[in-house]
Structures are given as structure tokens and as C-alpha cells.
Amino acid sequence: MKALLVVDVQNDFCPGGSLAVPQGDAIVPVINALLGKFPVVVASKDWHPHQTVHFQKWPVHCVHNTRGAEFHPALNSVNIQQVFLKGTGNTDDGYSAFEATNLDLVKFLKEKGVTNLYVVGLATDYCVRASALDAVKKGFKTYVVQDGVAAVNLHPGDDRKAFDEMKAGKVELVFSQDIV
Ligand SMILES: [Zn+2]
After folding, report:
1. Quick check: is 141 catalytic?
2. Distance between CA 1 and CA 27 in Å, rounded?
3. Distance from the CA of 57 to the center of ligand 1, in angstroms?
4. pTM above threshold 0.70
5. How far is residue 28's CA from residue 10's CA, in Å, rounded to a whole number?
6. pLDDT value at residue 55
7. Which residues, other chains included, contact 2 with Cβ-Cβ below 8 Å and sequence gap of 6+?
8. Beta strands in 18-140 (DSSP E)
9. What separation in Å is there between the alpha carbon of 23 and the centre of ligand 1?
10. Which pLDDT tens digit goes with each residue over 111-168?
11. 14 is annotated as an active-site residue
């Protein structure tokens, strides 16, 4: 059984948002085209309190119940069966979807019989990377869809580094056209 994990496709991570990933919205059509190919679709949301140590490292973004924390309007979010909220405390970064606090992602996926997890979303070099590496550790055969992710690239080449790190961590890199 395969599942799609859509990581943090939220307004604040898209152009116009407070922590915009360059071309962050360009992946939305790719993700929308994939949604129907998966029996299980889940998503994560960065869901921060107003004050958190996380905002000492990053501009304020994805504060819970704000517009910036909503899914990008073009994302076909009705197809998302469950949303997992992370970074909800005052001291945790919550880069990985597996750090969600509202529900246990591993338990949810295992109950659905999911063995293979495909990861798309934002951003390649932070939350996608952390979620994919965690998925391998939790025992899922893990894939990252390269044309379904985009990077912050604070330092040029961070995306390449993240892909290399994921590959070394047993994450398989694929393209959306290869998924049937
Ligand atoms: Zn955050």
C-alpha cells in the first residue's frame, strides 16, 4: 500500500509568504496531478504558536490559524485525508512530519497498511528532508518526488546537498512521471 505525504504546502512558504520558497507554488500542479494516484493522502502543516524559539532562527511564519498557515489555495486539499500539525510547541522546530503533535503519523499510516511513502512539498532542504529521513527510520520504503519539491536554498546548493543526504539515507529519488 502506498501513500503520499504532502509536506507544508502553505501560503507562508510560497511566493508572497513570509518565508517564501522560490517557485514554491510551481510544485502545486505536480502534486495535484499525483493526488488521484494514491489510495492514502496525508499532509503536514507547520503550525507554530506566536512565540517559539523557532522564530529566533526563522522569520515568523505559519502561526496557527493564520492565513499564512493555510494550504496554498491552488492545492487540491479536499483530497487530503488527514492533516498532521507540527512545530506546535514553544521549543520544537518540528521539521519532520513525524513530529506532529495532534496525531501519530506512524500509527495512522500503519493502520492503513501503508508500506511505501512518497514525499512531496516544501522545503527540500528542511522539512521534506527531515520527513523523508524519518520515514526510512520508521520502516517505510521512502521516495521523494524531485519535481514535487522545492528548496529554500539559503546557501546555493542546499537542495543538492539535501538530495545527496536523502540518497545516502536510503531514500529513493523519483520523478512524478514514473509514478503510475
Ligand atoms: Zn517552521
Report:
1. no
2. 24
3. 9
4. yes
5. 10
6. 97
7. 38, 39, 40, 114, 115, 116, 117, 118
8. 40-46, 82-86, 116-122
9. 18
10. 999 999 999 999 999 999 999 999 999 999 999 999 999 999 999 999 999 999 999 9
11. no
Angle between helices 158-168 and 129-137 (to 10 degrees): 0
Catalytic residue among 12, 86, 125, 134: 86
Catalytic residue from among 8, 46, 93, 125: 8
**Continuous segment of H or E residues that includes residue 158:** helix 158-168
* All cell numbers assigned to 93: 522546530
24: number of Cβ within 10 Å: 27
Quickly count: other Cβ atoms within 10 Å of residue 109's Cβ. Answer: 23
Query: Catalytic residue among 12, 14, 127, 134, which?
Result: 127
87 alpha carbon – ligand 1 mean position (Å): 6
Beta bridge partners of residue 144, listed in sequence order? 119, 173
Q: Identify whether 8 is a catalytic site residue.
A: yes
Cα-to-centroid distance, 180 and ligand 1 (Å)? 32
